[in-house]
Amino acid sequence: MMLSQTEENYLKAIYSLTYTNSNNVSTTLISEAIKTKASSVTDMIQKLAEKDLVHYKKYQGVSLTKIGQKIAVEIVRKHRLWEVFLVNKLNYNWDEVHQMAEQLEHIKSETLIDKLEAFLEFPTHDPHGDPIPDKEGNIKHHNNTMLSSVETGKSCVVIGIKDSSDPFLKFLDKLQIQLGSILKVISKEPFDNSMLVETETASISISNQISKNLFVKKL
Amino acid sequence: MMLSQTEENYLKAIYSLTYTNSNNVSTTLISEAIKTKASSVTDMIQKLAEKDLVHYKKYQGVSLTKIGQKIAVEIVRKHRLWEVFLVNKLNYNWDEVHQMAEQLEHIKSETLIDKLEAFLEFPTHDPHGDPIPDKEGNIKHHNNTMLSSVETGKSCVVIGIKDSSDPFLKFLDKLQIQLGSILKVISKEPFDNSMLVETETASISISNQISKNLFVKKL
DNA sequence: AAATTAATTTAGATAAGTCTAAAAATAAAT
DNA sequence: ATTTATTTTTAGACTTATCTAAATTAATTT
Ligand SMILES: [Mn+2]
Ligand SMILES: [Mn+2]
Ligand SMILES: [Mn+2]
Ligand SMILES: [Mn+2]
User: Would you list the DSSP string of B46-69?
Assistant: First the structure.
C-alpha cells in the first residue's frame, strides 16, 4: 500500500493520540495535533476508512485498524531511529532533531530503515527515551512512573521525557538533567507540588509541571 | 526561498540537461527527463520564471538564473552526499542508492547536509565517481576522457560513470569493473569500435557503448 | 423535555501539479 | 515561398489536500 506523507502523518497522529487520550480519537483532537481544521480531518479519515486503515462511524471518532496500526508503528520506528542517527552520529543535540526526523520518517525504502538500525547497533530507545519498535512492530512501553510520584528520600534514574518539546528539552539542558541522570527527592512542597531534588552536581527546585513530565525508574 | 520537491526536481533536471545538451533546454527534453507531459513543463517553467529561478522566453527554452543554478547545485550536493552515506556507511551497492537519494535530497535543514558531509569525512566524489560540490557550490567537473579515446597499449584508471543507470552499474559489477579499476587497452576493433581490455584479473571485450560511458584518467 | 452550546460533517471554493485536446508558433520539406 | 510536420503553449478538466461557511448531530444546561 502506497501512502502519501499526509496520510502517514494522520495515522501517526491517531496512533499517539490513542495512547495519550481515549481509544476512539475525536476529529478536533486530530485537527489540533496535525494543525488543520476539523473539516479537513473528516475528509481524510473518510479516505483512510475507505482504505481500511481506520475504523470510523460518523460522529464516533476513529481508531486504527490492525493494518493502520502496523503502518503507524513503522513510521514511529523510522522517526526514532533517524533521531538516534542525528544525535549519535551527526552530533545534534536532542532538542534539534525532531523536525528533521519528521521528514526522514517518510523516506520510502524496503531496506533502508533496517540497514540504518544495524548501523546504529540496534538502539532500544531514541534520544528522548522513547522506545524503538522492532522490525515486527513490537514495542515496550515505559512503566509509567513519573518523577512526581517518587517518595521523599528515594532516588531514581531519568529514563524518558513525556513532552519532548524544544523548550522543555532546552530547559532540562539548563538544569543539567539528561537521560540516565540520578535524582534524589529531598523534599516536597504540598502548596504547589514542587519538589527539591538533588542531582549529581546540584540541588534544584522542580515544579510539578516538570516532575509530571519525567519518566523515571526508582532505585 | 521555500521550494516544493517538484520545483527542486525541475531545477535539477534543467541543470543536468544544460550540461548534456544545449545551453537553452527545451520543454520536451525536460518532460522526458522528468516523465511528465510537455504542457505540464510549460506550466512549471512559467512558475519558476515568476520566481526568477529560470530565464524563459516563449518557445525559446529555459536556462537557470544565478540563484536557480545555486539551488540546483545544492540539491546535487545533497543527492551525492546521501549516496556516499548509503554506500559507505549502510553498505549498499552502488546500483541500489539512487532512488533513496532522490528522496533524501529534498530533506530541508540548514545544517544537516554539512553535518553529514563532516561525518563522511568530506568525500570528493559520490559512489559513481561524480564530483560533490562544496558548501559554496564549487564543483570540479571530470576532464572528459572516456575509455573509448584511450590509445592501444595505454593504461588508465576508471574514475567515473557517465550513465549511472541500474542495468549499466550491474553490468560493470559482472565485469568486475569499479571505480579505481586499472584497464589496459590491448586492441581495438575498427568494425564496431569495441576494444579488448585487460583488467587486474581478466581480459574482456568491451563494446563502444560501454567504453563511451566510462570516465578514465590516463596513466 | 426543551433549549442552548459544542462538535462534526457537508458543500463549495482554492492552490499545486498533472493530464488531454486544441490552438499557435517554429522548424523542416517540398 | 508554400505546405507540412513538429514543438510549444493555452484551455479546460482532474486529484489531493486544504479552507470557510453552513447544516447536521450530539452533548450540556436549564
Ligand atoms: Mn521526535
Ligand atoms: Mn523522540
Ligand atoms: Mn544518483
Ligand atoms: Mn551518483
Answer: HHHHHTTSEEE-TTS-EEE-HHHH
What does R_g of chain A's alpha carbons equal in angstroms? 19
**Helix H or strand E encompassing B203:** strand B203-206
Q: Summarize pLDDT for A16-52 with one digit per residue, the tens.
A: 999 888 899 999 999 999 999 999 999 999 999 999 9
A83-129, pLDDT tens digit by residue?
999 999 999 999 999 999 999 999 999 999 999 999 999 999 999 99
What's the gap in Å between B160 CA and the centre of ligand 4? 10
Domain A5-64's class? Answer: mainly alpha
In this structure, are residues B8 and B75 in contact, taking their beta carbons and an 8 Å threshold?
Answer: yes
Q: Which nucleotides of C are covered by protein (CB under 7 A)?
A: 7-12, 16-22, 25-26
Q: Could you tell me the three cell numbers for B102?
A: 532522490
The answer to whether A59 and A67 have CB atoms below 8 angstroms apart is no
Q: What are the boundaries of each domain within chain A?
A: 5-64, 147-218
Give me the CA B203–C1' D13 separation in Å, rounded: 59
CA separation for the pair A140, A159 (Å, rounded):
13
Q: Does B100 contact A109 at a Cβ distance shorter than 8 Å?
A: yes
pLDDT tens per residue, range B97-140: 999 999 999 999 999 999 999 999 999 999 999 999 999 999 99
From the list A100, A115, A116, the residue facing B107 with the nearest CB is: A100
* H or E element, residue A63: strand A62-64
| Domain with residues A147-218, CATH architecture | Roll (2.30)
